[in-house]
Design brief:
Structural class: mainly beta
Strand content: over 45%
Order of helices and strands: EEEEEEEEEEEEEEEEEEEEEEH
Oligomer: single chain
Number of strands: 22
Largest sheet: 10 strands, antiparallel
Radius of gyration: 20 Å
Number of helices: 1
Number of domains: 1
Distance between the termini: 33 Å
Shape: globular
Length: about 325
Amino acid sequence: MKIRVLKFVCCLGFIAILLLGGNYASKALASDSDKLCSVGIGKSLTCANSLSKIDDFVNFKNTLSDYVNATDAYHINYITTTWKPSVTRGDPIYKSYYVTDNYNNRLLFTDNDHYGYHLWDYSSVTTGINKTAGYYPASYKSPVSVLEIQNMPSISCTGATAAFCRTYTQANQISVSSASLLPQNNNEDSLVKSTTVSESVYGTKALGNNSLGMKLPSFLPFQIKDVYSQKSKIGKIDATEVTYLSEENSDYITLKASNASVIPTSNNFSIQKGELVKNNLETNYLNNGVTQILDWEQDGLSYTLFASGSKIYTEDQLKNIASSLK
């Protein structure tokens, strides 16, 4: 099928989409590589799994290793995470890494320091975490770490190629091994097995691929060439992201919303605190050298803007986009 894009037009305070063809149905896909690990009380453990993927665009492998310690029967301390990539073909990129504290229903740790970077930029990446998650041997009470890898740069997800743009996930779930807890272990669900990421929804259906009721920008700093969206779920945490691609250059902007509180952290870059004056909301701005990122919470959802391309997007520029959500 030939796709003919007329143009995306911004006017009258909303983004109108004029597009013929290019609609792809969403399909939920389980975590691409998952691992269940158990650590003894007072012990440390490295929980590792390797993801190997070959598709029409990439051939790569990435090993995710989380080093943890069970401080007691009900708490797990995440010490470091290490990623070891190997790329044979294509240009996969890192996206977000996060740890879910499902016992307290929050995102314990979110790392976007490497968001947008090519896997072949690294031989190994180690990030310090030093955060403690709650644990209980019952349904949806185990902490889970997730690493997202996209099979091509976001700017390549355009036209017919957008249908093949895919985010792969690696997930590690940690439990505490304790004789006093064993009778209840049968009630514990495998959250990594239920982790899902949808295939890209492209074209006119992309903006309707939104089960969270997230708001969308009514202003963007460029004419829009294409748009696509993806949804993900781990335990009780749902997320939806919508990516807009520029008509003029290699710029793209992604808006991500989640029903869990996001606590942005960075070991390598400074996080600038700010405010959306119009909405009286606190913001966090990070520039990792490739991607500029703005986080804030609004109407019960956590929002993150990711921007990258031909220029550096300033904090004020991302705030302008954030303030336009409707």
